[in-house]
Fold these 2 entries.
Entry 1:
Amino acid sequence: MLQKLLMLSNFLFLIKLVRVLKKYNVLILINRNIRFKFLFIFFTNLISIGVSYDKNHKNKSEGLRIAQALNELGPSFVKLGQLISTRPDIVGNTIAEDLALLRDNLPPFSRKIAIEIIEDEFGTNIDNVFSQFSEPVAAASIAQVHFAKIKSSNTEIDVAVKVLRPEIEKIINQEMERLEWLTTFMENFTEFQRLRPNSIIKKAKEVIKFELDLRYEAAAASELSENTNMDETFYVPAVYWDKVTQKILTMEKIIGVPADKIDELNEKKVNMKQAAENLIINFLRQSIRDGYFHADLHQGNLFLNPKGKLLAVDFGIMGRLDKKNRSYLAEIIYGFIKQDYLHIAKIHQEAGLIDKNQSIEDFSQALRSIGEPIINQKAKNISMGNVLLQLFDITKQFNMFLQPQLLLLQKTMITVEGVARKLDPDINFWEVSKPEIETWLKDELGIKNRLQQTQQALQSIARKVPDIPDFISRADQAFDLIVKNEEDKTPKNRDSNSYVIGGVALVVGIMIAFVFI
């Protein structure tokens, strides 16, 4: 019986999916890429009887129509679209750029329900948690935001309170189960196997899992704040941990002008040129210097104060790069700035991104075809999307593997470049980037940093084998015993062996001493 109900639920979900996709004329995109077109058209038309294509969407791009369809289908589909936007190598650059603009806007739930959730989480009356609590000021698919006040040392502090939607975990789990069923079905067709839909759904589940627990977002904000606390042009609001639970996040209220309110920014005489430069510089610092960056830096998540300082909110989507990929990224960008395409090609080879059998010279020439047209041009004349599209084409030509950890960064780079261009259409991305990357590379490749890396490696060895001194002592005693037993047989070998074990002990001893200097 349960199995039959599940099948019925999945079938009803399929009907809803087809009808929404037809409304936004997305079915035609799928039809282009499958073999059995007649059967597809017949069954989808049968399922979607009574639904006609909304002509209001006629002049909209394919990616925008997909984004609107996903928004109507539910929160899991919105997150899925945002995730797919990081894979232009699969869906194409144009669609990826449109999906990157996907924003989930849903009607807010009532203040009364929000208060009930807060009181349930803290086990006390709302007045014991917040001295004031506003109506919702912003709402999305996972949570909504209220303004409130908290008391601290006889003073009141303005805060922003994010509250998870009621029943959202149940809704997300149901949608994910249906998506898993759908992608399992899709992978029976060779046309969809290339997209690896099951792996995309698994990744989406991982992403959403963190968004359903606001303690993770609080931790992300805290880590980013620690990394950037010395950066005067970027600010992360404080987290009030005593007012944080799985369903509640309380942070300092930001006072600033939203980055998309260009007219208001001009009225307040905000230095737009400086703000655009600050955005690019701070993005590079976070990604290359720290290896941990805000991966959702669209205009709705950025505010500016009169001095052009960036105030960030919403830390649900963060990106992380290891040291190796940070070095790789910095040298690639710097290579383009210096127009040293052979160096870029060699970096790709050293990183194992291109096959050893591929010609470095040919790859260098391909990179030149990308770099030369954009060097010394201003941002308004450069489409970073087109640059990335060419890079993805090259990856296919040279059988390169696109590293997943760089894909989110590439998507964020497009967003950052777009916001910077809105603030200052004449900004030169490369000119602003150059001194920041030069400084990082100088520090990274300097002797001081090399010594620190060596010390860290030795500390790691010491932690893994903490009993090295004791081990050496016991090994030396064992060796002495062996030597004593063999003394009469081969006396001439004793000096030689003693030198060997003594040398080993000396080397290890020096290593351990260096670790704790």
Entry 2:
Amino acid sequence: MGKESRAKDKSYFKPPGRGVIGLAIAATLLTTGFGFWQVSQIRKAEELKAAAATTAATTASTRTSVTALGRLTPQGEVIKLSAPSASEGARIELLKVEEGDRVSQGQIIAVLDTRDRLQAILQQADKEVKVKQAELAKIQAGAKTGQIGAQKAEVAKSQVQRQRETEGEGANVARLEAQMRRDIEAAQANVAKFEAQLQRETEAERANLAKFEAQLQRETEVQQAKLARLEAQVRGEINSQNATVDRLKAELANAQAEEQRNKELSETGAISASAYDTKRLGVETGRQKVKEAEAILEKTVQTLRQEIVETKATVKQKVETGKQEINQSRANLKRKSETGRQEINQATATLNQKRETGREQINQAEAMLKQKAETGAEQINQAKATLDQIAEIRPEDVQAAQAAVESAIATKQKAQVDLNLSYVKAPVSGYVLKVHTRQGERINTQDGIVELGRTDQMYAIAEVYETDIAKVRNGQRATVTSSVFAGTLEGTVARIGKKIGKKDVLNTDPAADTDARVIEVRIRLDPESSQKVAELTNLQVEVKIAI
């Protein structure tokens, strides 16, 4: 049994085989080799970067030109010609140009479908002008003589009727004013009576109040005099007793000093014990006198202060009693004043009510009088106006008719302007590059009807990298090439852009940087070069600017 267990233990701790050790060594060698390869690759990349930087620096220092991709464009860019905003949603009724046609400034490009409707509006406005001119001529011709007499009679009738009505209403107003004066005088007399009564009662109560106040003042002064006497007596007693206490304390201090000396003499045997006892008894007697004097002082102060407290209480009681009588008198005065004021207010309210009622009645009568007077005056004025209208030609009527004619003419002119907007015209001379909207189609709001370009003068827009823009100056010469045309184009740098953006012209090189930041440089082509590429708008080109 023991031999088997020992055999198992030995087999359990048996060392690994040669295959496992070989695998471990191989893995270690692979890891080490891969690490050396990575290090060599990193060093190689760094060497390539350094060489590229050296080459770029050498090339930049020896460059004589700046190259860039670009595009051809006419002078002033391409114009997208559209209809006016007022014609939004219109259709093309007639298109008068095709791509490649040359147009002059002001030439009709297209006719909108709003032309016929606006033409009808213009004709209607023309007829309205003629109608207003006829009305003006009619007013200037005048009226018949037979109507003038009848209208004068109508004016006289209106004047008589107005006079009768105004006289009747005037009498009614005078009656109401007299009645209001009588009512107001009676109410004012009643108010005066209540005011006199209130004055008498308030004067009586004020006299009673003055009596109570004087009585309170006298009693208060008597008690305050007594209080002042007691306080003076307290101060005198306190001073007297304090002097007595101080004297006794001084005697006690002297006796204590004498007792201390005799004590020392008694201890040395210079004096007898009975002599020392006599001195000590004198000290005790002095202490007793001081205590008695302080007790007398305290008792005297307490007695006088009690009298002062009682006197103050008496003063307070009399003051409160006097104030109570005064307050009661004031309350009576206030009550009578309020009662009298209430009666006066009531009488005043009655007076105001009668005044307002009378004024309201008078206002109504005056309003009626004014209304009838105004109505009569209006009727008279209307009759006179009719008479004037019949009798003469007023400048105002002529001016109004003339203004109507001018308004009709302005409406006609507006209709003519609206009609002109139905014709889309070329803003500049140039060539039709592209037609976006054909006859019968709704106008393309984004691209317009046609694209126009002033191709007599062409430009090349070069997209120069922001790192090269510092080398470019206005006036530098440039050459433009492309596989589309033979030879090269010549031009001069005319304008350098002020804004940095992304490239618009893409290179066919798949490794090119499409997100590069560039600045647009406009190059004005020479006349001969412009004629050569006049029909190649937006052509991608390569631009080389001599620096």
